[in-house]
């Protein structure tokens, strides 16, 4: 990559400014090249610029170190190395993967039951002083199995086999429910099967996009109204949709009127034919036919 | 199958059957659409036919051949009275309403009684659907359909026969355990068993493989001193450690959060243990963890050697309950051939419900149907060494109490 040499503070090119803004050294052309060529192995590349920059490009050692630490911070943020590593020697040792995966920490212990479970683990640990090896192993199992349902802790489930189980537990109000069971050797993890909420959510999304369709078909208006009150986007779509198919909606209303007032049915039906578009006409025609049949 | 015992009745049945046939022909000629509910068209003599077909041949060695009443209980595990009660529970769901009702081979509608009998026989004997069907004169698919309909109906309508006791009932249970075993404030006994099945040898079946290389499903139950199930959990794979099974249960969560076993604690009265108390608890075997509300036996021999037999005595309620459950409802004891794992928990639950209904109806559970060996004899119980400190003190309090009580009894 070629770029114009810096001419001074005021004469910085856009690339330099961008580099500065992102924390890259202004004169780090080589570094950048290396970085772009080997984006997957930044750790091995990192220590190298130090002697280079010291001997060739920049005589100011302190400034270079500062720049380097800045760059390493940026790389840390980019590749999520974990703790900030200001010392290049440390960086050299650290692998791309987290040496101490974050799964070990329990970030979300929200549910009461799981809270209790964690307390229980602590209790068991403290009370296990007189247990043998088997007990310790059991305890580890207990610990490993800490991923209780509803924890919201995704965890690393790679290598786990997954089974759907239907459980009947008379302790719960609803006796029967489905769970997902993850198993890896002796480690068992239980997760809730994707709940109704999520399914509803996806349905809602589909509904937003499908509202147009629904309205054009003269679908359930009341449902559309309910949904549109919840979300801005939905209401906008609904407005557009209702403008487009206003005739149909009017016709729908007239149909409901028809249902309620049997006596004036024919008069209202004629009105509805006048206000409707093509689609609407076809519906009303079919409706007319059915009415006639009934009569 | 024995020869028909009552030729006169058989003749009667034949006549009735011919009458029904004639009636049906007439009906078909007159009106094809609506078939009125006619009792004669419904198979009401199912028991006579079944008994004639299946009653054991008279044994010349035994003086008292099996009478019909005993025979009924032998085949269906319940007395006639309890049978009627079960029918009343599920009648709404099983009643055959023409034209959609189930029919037998002769084309007659299946009565609710016959449907219940088919389902009970299938659950009680564990025999194949084909042989159960043959004994009732229906096809395999009818047995399958009827059994599942019965299970679904029972699941819905017999729930009240399996519930955690209210404080009044708990008091009764506590005194029952105390009078049987001497353990104070004990609210139940917990145990678990494996329901073994065959599954296709594919990778997806691996999770159901247990430590004995069987495919199995767990049932865990808490029972009272009368061997009534108070709480069950089932559906989890049999390979799970028992401690994990417990932890997965709603019962564990409720007990840990104070939702269960939270009744009055018993204060110890002796001067040496003043201020100490015995809270409500259940007893379990060595494969369960020791918790403040779940008392397990001592692993090491120590000062309280008298304690383990007492605890074991109380725990026997659960062991015997499972033995009777699997013995009475043999479908649970036989190796099920590729069952639907979504349906199996319902089958297990309904067997537990039937077990409880027998007790609730004041009938005695037939001890002769119980398994001769331990309900889970293939499985070596693993000793769980998970110990909770407050469980230790609770167990010691109990042991002290029993020790003192025994001492007082000896002195007296």
Automatic annotation (TrEMBL), chain A:
Ranges of Polar residues composition bias in the record: 273-287
Region ranges (Disordered): 23-64, 199-295
Biased composition range(s): Basic and acidic residues: 208-226, 233-242
Superkingdom, taxonomy of origin: Eukaryota
PANTHER family: FANTOM PROTEIN
Record-given protein name: Uncharacterized protein
Organism this protein belongs to: Erythranthe guttata
TrEMBL record, chain B:
Molecular function, one GO term: metal ion binding
The keyword Secreted appears for this protein: no
InterPro entries (alphabetical): HARBI1-like, HARBI1_dom
Domain DDE Tnp4: 190-356
Major location (coarse): nucleus
Amino acid composition bias (Basic residues), ranges on this chain: 1-27
Cofactor(s) the record lists: a divalent metal cation
UniProt keyword annotations, A-Z: Hydrolase, Metal-binding, Nuclease, Nucleus
GO cellular component: ESC/E(Z) complex; PRC1 complex
Subcellular location: Nucleus
Record family assignment: Belongs to the HARBI1 family.
Name of the featured protein: DDE Tnp4 domain-containing protein
Organism: Erythranthe guttata
């Amino acid at each position: 990559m070629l770029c114009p040499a810096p001419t001074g503070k005021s004469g910085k090119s856009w690339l330099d400014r961008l580099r500065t803004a992102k924390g890259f050294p202004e004169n780090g052309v080589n570094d950048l090249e290396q970085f772009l060529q080997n984006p997957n192995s930044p750790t091995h590349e990192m220590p190298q610029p130090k002697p280079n920059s010291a001997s060739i490009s920049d005589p100011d050692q302190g400034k270079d170190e500062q720049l380097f630490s800045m760059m390493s911070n940026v790389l840390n943020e980019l590749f999520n190395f974990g703790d900030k590593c200001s010392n290049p020697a440390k960086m050299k040792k650290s692998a791309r993967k987290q040496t101490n995966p974050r799964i070990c920490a329990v970030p979300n212990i929200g549910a009461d039951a799981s809270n209790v479970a964690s307390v229980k683990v602590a209790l068991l640990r403290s009370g296990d002083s007189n247990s043998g090896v088997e007990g310790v192993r059991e305890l580890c199992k207990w610990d490993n199995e800490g991923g209780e349902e509803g924890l919201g802790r995704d965890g690393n489930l790679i290598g786990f086999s997954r089974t759907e189980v239907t459980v009947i537990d008379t302790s719960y109000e609803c006796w029967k429910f489905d769970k997902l069971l993850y198993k890896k050797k002796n480690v068992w993890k239980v997760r809730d099967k994707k709940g109704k909420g999520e399914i509803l959510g996806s349905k809602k999304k589909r509904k937003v996009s499908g509202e147009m369709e629904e309205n054009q078909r003269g679908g359930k208006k009341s449902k559309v109204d309910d949904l549109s009150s919840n979300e801005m986007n939905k209401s906008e779509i609904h407005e557009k949709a209702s403008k487009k198919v206003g005739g149909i909606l009017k016709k729908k209303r007239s149909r409901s009127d028809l249902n309620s007032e049997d006596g004036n049915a024919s008069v209202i039906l004629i009105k509805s034919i006048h206000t409707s578009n093509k689609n609407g006409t076809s519906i009303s025609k079919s409706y007319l036919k059915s009415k006639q049949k009934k009569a | 199958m024995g020869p028909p015992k009552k030729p006169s009745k058989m003749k009667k049945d034949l006549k009735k059957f011919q009458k029904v046939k004639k009636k049906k022909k007439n009906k078909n000629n007159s009106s094809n659409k609506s078939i009125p509910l006619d009792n004669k068209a419904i198979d009401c003599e199912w028991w006579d036919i079944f008994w004639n077909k299946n009653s054991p041949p008279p044994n010349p060695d035994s003086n008292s051949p099996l009478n019909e009443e005993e025979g009924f209980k032998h085949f269906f595990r319940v007395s006639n009275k309890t049978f009627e009660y079960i029918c009343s529970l599920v009648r709404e769901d099983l009643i055959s309403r023409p034209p959609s009702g189930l029919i037998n081979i002769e084309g007659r509608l299946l009565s609710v009684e016959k449907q219940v009998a088919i389902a009970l026989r299938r659950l009680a004997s564990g025999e194949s659907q084909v042989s159960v069907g043959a004994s009732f004169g229906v096809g395999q698919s009818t047995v399958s359909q009827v059994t599942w309909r019965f299970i679904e109906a029972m699941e819905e309508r017999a729930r009240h026969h399996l519930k955690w006791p209210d404080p009044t009932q708990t008091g009764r249970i506590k005194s029952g355990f105390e009078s049987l075993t001497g353990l104070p404030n004990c609210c139940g006994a917990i145990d678990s068993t494996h329901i073994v099945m065959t599954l296709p040898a594919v990778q997806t079946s691996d999770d159901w493989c247990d430590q004995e290389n069987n495919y199995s499903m767990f049932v865990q139950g808490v029972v009272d001193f009368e061997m009534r199930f108070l709480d069950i959990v089932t559906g989890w794979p049999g390979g799970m450690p028992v401690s994990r099974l417990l932890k997965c249960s709603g019962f564990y969560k409720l007990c840990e959060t104070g939702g269960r076993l939270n009744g009055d604690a018993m204060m110890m009265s002796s001067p040496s243990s003043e201020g100490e108390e015995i809270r409500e608890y259940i007893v379990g075997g060595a494969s369960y963890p020791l918790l403040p509300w779940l008392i397990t036996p001592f692993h090491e021999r120590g000062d309280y050697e008298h304690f383990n037999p007492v605890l074991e005595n109380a725990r026997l309620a659960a062991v015997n309950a499972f033995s009777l459950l699997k013995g009475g409802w043999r479908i649970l004891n036989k190796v099920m051939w590729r069952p639907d794992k979504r349906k199996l928990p319902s089958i297990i639950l309904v067997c537990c419900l039937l077990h409880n209904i027998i007790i609730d109806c004041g009938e005695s559970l037939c001890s002769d149907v119980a398994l001769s060996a331990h309900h889970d004899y293939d499985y070596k119980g693993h000793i769980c060494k998970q110990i909770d400190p407050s469980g230790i003190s609770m167990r010691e309090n109990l042991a002290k109490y029993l020790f003192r009580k025994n001492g007082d009894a000896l002195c007296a």
